[in-house]
Design brief:
Strand content: 25-35%
CATH superfamily: Nucleoside Triphosphate Pyrophosphohydrolase
CATH class: Alpha Beta
Structural class: alpha+beta
Shape: globular
Number of helices: 3
Distance between the termini: 36 Å
Largest sheet: 4 strands, mixed
Number of strands: 9
Number of domains: 1
Strand order of the largest sheet: 4-1-7-6
Helix content: 25-40%
Length: 153
């Protein structure tokens, strides 16, 4: 971790909170794709973002009409440096907090992921954990997505 990392985290967190609060624009329906990515050893890959708390599934936004599987694979390449993968399938499309947000998130199961982490302005850290033994400090939304996918597997 370099000296600039804590400053970068502070700036990105502040920007994220301003945009999330919707101070400048009313947020339209958004679409996301996140990967329940498993290594060949069957460990789940989690990321810690610089601008939001907690461990999360790798993933991000997708355009309306964009294939969720293609979006999830793109996010894996961008966030963890994925170089290869095995079987890929759409596990679920979930509404995220429909009472306060209008998000539709696709969770895609990607098996046998091979990757080479690299420095990123967005990703602070990447870890592998047993899917049944999540680390402390999980983001609540990620825990809910993981539980929903585990029930489908």
């Amino acid at each position: 971790m370099s000296f600039a990392d804590p400053l970068l985290r502070l700036a990105l967190t502040a920007g994220h909170h301003v945009l999330k609060a919707g101070w400048f624009i009313r947020r339209p329906r958004t679409f996301g794709a996140h990967a329940y990515a498993l290594t060949p050893e069957r460990k789940l890959i989690l990321v810690r973002l610089r601008y939001a708390p907690g461990w999360r599934l790798p993933g991000g936004g997708r355009n309306p009409g964009e294939d969720p599987i293609a979006a999830a694979l793109r996010e894996l390449r961008e966030e963890i440096g994925m170089t290869a993968h095995g079987i890929v399938r759409l596990a679920a499309e979930l509404e995220q907090r429909p009472d306060s947000r209008r998000d539709l998130v696709a969770v895609v199961v990607v098996e046998d992921v091979i990757y080479a982490p690299r420095w990123s302005w967005e990703i602070e850290r990447v870890i592998e954990v047993p899917a049944w033994q999540l680390p402390p400090g999980m983001a609540r939304v990620a825990e809910a997505w993981i539980a929903a996918v585990r029930d489908l597997l």
